[in-house]
Design brief:
With 503 residues, the chain is an alpha+beta fold. It has helices spanning 3-20, 26-34, 42-59, 62-70, 94-120, 129-154, 175-192, 205-218, 222-235, 250-253, 280-283, 312-315, 322-327, 367-382, 387-400, 422-437, 443-449, 453-460, 481-486, 492-495, and strands spanning 76-77, 157-158, 172-173, 263-267, 289-291, 294-295, 305-308, 328-330, 342-345, 362-366, 462-463, 466-467. The strands form five sheets. The protein has a four-stranded antiparallel beta sheet. The protein has a two-stranded antiparallel ribbon with strand order 2-3.
Length: 503
């Protein structure tokens, strides 16, 4: 295809895309128009990767994390999120629906940038074929990551690729087809991404393996999942950071942290250019000092969600586990009290923050995620928990008590004899996963996949003293009205997710 033809097609298609993506702003439009030219150099290809990464900072923002955390059995909502939980009726607040629509838009913008570059890069004339494929591998990882979140939270959605960028009126693809597409992207990424990240924050082949391993858990290809997780573990590249007190976990989640041996794929932030993470403003209280004289967010924050000492997850959590004090801090708010048992979610903090933005990288995939997947996959493959299944949960548990993760310790170790069937093991798996990944926007998806969401929410969340029931509507989010306004291949009455159809 000749360059002039490509320019004409892109100029025309981007005019459509500027409206279909709820109007690309001027910077987005300028970038997209510029990238309709061939990519020639490694610097230009790197810019192609940075574009979706930058958009993903907005896609996986405060609202994304808050929405997924308030779903859980251990978390309570307030403010704009009241109504979403603890009543579990799905999106019922107009402001929240708008925010979720913004997440949808930013995810599709990130996918658009991936598609443009994936389409252009094969024509580059200043890179080798191996270099081109490496960059495409990174982009296909990012595209797969975004589609994985679309399919988990919206279900069937339009599958926009480099092959159909010029087509806006596009029907939804089935969940099965989207997973097939995700797997194909990730297999390419595994085979072509660099083994070491080109720079901190760009995906490598181990990030691709980690994501593909998790995707296979959703498609129940447990043997493949186990193999990939095992390859990551055996690579020796990653390791659990050892801790001796709760705030030593700042070596994993801390402000101004460059990287760590647990970081598989984080969205990086920067204090100097204002590319920060706003989620801390949702979990912080402006008066709370996480250390004497150091405010959690430099005097900002409004705690849109919180937990409570009476919640059974919190009440049953051994306080000698350093993850307890890392994640949960009781605070008497005085006249600002929301309840005398109120606890802030304190995994992240930044006393140097300017406004509500913190220089805390967004922890999307950690080495702990790989260990949790591996523990479950080994049990699934064996149709029963094994010593290896228990051992990888024990590694997380030992670290949490300040012990060497790799050295057995009878004082804290779980025993296979106590968890020798799948039901007992899954309950243990959920308990350790909850402690390990609290406030990381992963637990809700985990318990939904395991079919345990209703059981856990029913056990730990109450409304007016009664156990609550999760409505069908709550399991998927509303497809934004703008998608139906601009995409004429979709019909709101037919294609909207259950419970959100407007008459």
């Amino acid at each position: 295809m000749k360059k002039i033809v490509l320019l004409s097609i892109f100029a025309l298609s981007l005019l459509c895309l500027s409206s279909c993506y709820e109007s690309l702003d001027e910077a987005d439009y300028t970038y997209a128009l510029a990238t309709s030219n061939f990519y020639n150099t490694t610097n230009e290809a790197n810019a192609a990767v940075m574009a979706p990464l930058n958009m993903m900072r907005g896609a996986y923002d405060a609202n994304w994390f808050a929405t997924l955390e308030i779903n859980t059995e251990y978390c309570y909502s307030k403010g704009v999120y009241t109504g979403y939980s603890p009543r579990y009726e799905g999106l019922v607040n107009a402001t929240h629906i708008t925010r979720i629509g913004s997440n949808w838009t930013n995810i599709y913008k990130a996918i658009l940038y991936c598609n443009i570059a994936i389409d252009r890069l094969p024509d580059a004339n200043a890179m080798t074929g191996q270099e081109i494929n490496a960059f495409i591998g990174e982009l296909r990882f990012l595209r797969a990551f975004n589609y994985f979140n679309l399919v988990r939270h919206w279900g069937a959605v339009p599958l926009r690729t480099e092959e159909n960028m010029e087509i806006w009126d596009l029907k939804k693809s089935s969940v099965e087809d989207i997973y097939e597409f995700i797997i194909d992207d990730l297999l390419f990424a595994v085979n072509n991404c660099p083994s070491t990240s080109r720079m901190i924050g760009t995906p490598n082949l181990y990030a691709a393996k980690a994501l593909l391993s998790e995707v296979y858990m959703y498609t129940k290809d447990y043997a493949k999942s186990k193999q990939l997780a095992e390859e990551i573990i055996n690579s020796g590249i990653y390791a659990l950071v050892t801790v001796a007190q709760p705030r030593d976990f700042d070596k994993v989640f801390g402000y101004d942290l460059t990287t760590s041996t647990e970081e598989v794929f984080y969205i990086k932030t920067s204090r100097t250019d204002g590319k920060t993470w706003s989620y801390l403003s949702y979990t912080s209280h402006p008066k709370f000092e996480i250390e004497p004289g150091k405010l959690m967010l430099n005097g900002n924050g409004y705690f849109t969600h919180y937990t409570d000492l009476r919640n059974k997850v919190i009440e049953n959590w051994d306080e000698n586990d350093f993850r307890h004090d890392l994640n949960v801090r009781f605070y008497i708010f005085g006249e600002d009290a929301y309840g005398s048992y109120t606890c802030l979610l304190t995994k992240y903090w930044d006393p140097l923050a300017q406004g509500g933005g913190a220089n805390v990288s967004i922890p999307l995939i950690r080495y702990s995620d790989v260990l949790i997947t591996y523990a479950e996959a080994t049990a699934r493959v064996n149709n029963n928990p094994t010593q290896e299944s228990i051992e990888y949960l024990n590694k997380l548990r030992r670290r949490a008590y300040g012990l060497n993760p790799d050295s057995p310790d009878e004082s804290v170790d779980y025993k296979l004899s106590d968890y020798n069937d799948m039901d007992k093991f899954i309950d243990l798996l959920i308990k350790e996963e909850t402690y390990e990944r609290m406030n990381e926007a992963k637990h809700w998806d985990f318990i939904v996949r395991l079919g345990k969401a209703q059981e856990l929410v029913g056990k730990y969340q109450k409304v007016n003293g009664d156990y609550t029931t999760i409505s069908e509507k709550h399991y998927l989010w509303k497809i934004p009205d703008a998608e139906f306004n601009y995409n004429k291949a979709l019909d709101q009455k037919v294609d909207q997710n259950p419970g959100y159809i407007t008459e």
